[in-house]
Amino acid sequence: MVLILMVIISLPTVIVLVLGMLPTGVAWLIDQTEERFATFCVGGINMCGVFPYVVKLWAVNHTIDAALKMISDVFVLAVMYAAAGFGWLVYLSIPPVISAFLSVIAQRRVASLRSLQRDIVGEWGNSVAGLDGDEILSDLESPDPDGI
Q1: What pLDDT, in 10s, does the model give residues 8-51?
Q2: With bands split at pLDDT 50, 70 and 90, how would you rate the model's confidence at 2?
Q3: Where are the domains of the chain?
Q4: Does the pLDDT at position 83 exceed 70?
Q5: How far apart are CA 26 and CA 51, in angstroms?
Q6: pTM, whole model, 2 decimals?
Q7: Contact 68/19 with Cβ under 8 angstroms?
Q8: Cα dihedral 64→70→74→80 (10° resolution)
Q9: Do 48 and 83 meet the contact criterion of CB atoms below 8 Å apart?
Q10: Distance CA 130, CA 15 (A)
Q11: Close Cβ partners of 39 (under 8 Å, ≥ 6 residues apart)
């Protein structure tokens, strides 16, 4: 209902939006996850590339002819689709960076907890951990196989 109303009232805007947001439609088709992170990432940045031209269309000449001239301009399409490409770049590059960052934080936390555990065992003895003998001390003094 809303789409039909938009087509009737604002066909030039619909033309620019539909052709400019094609990469977002492709992202929506490709992204089968429940959260649709790729769709939102590509769509949001793609909209940033399309929006200035929609505003220009509204401000200057809101006709079908102006919309078709705008869409037929290679530079305009390059900006719109490059913005979508940047969205894909962000979607593909940010998760590994965040994962590495969280891994470093977790490793530092484990090292801190091991240090605290060594201090507690040193102050209270091995019995505080519930095990006998040198089992705890050898575990605390030996380097971790994971490099933590």
Answers
A1: 889 999 999 999 999 999 999 999 999 999 999 999 999 999 99
A2: confident
A3: 2-141
A4: yes
A5: 19
A6: 0.72
A7: no
A8: -110
A9: yes
A10: 71
A11: 24, 27, 28, 31
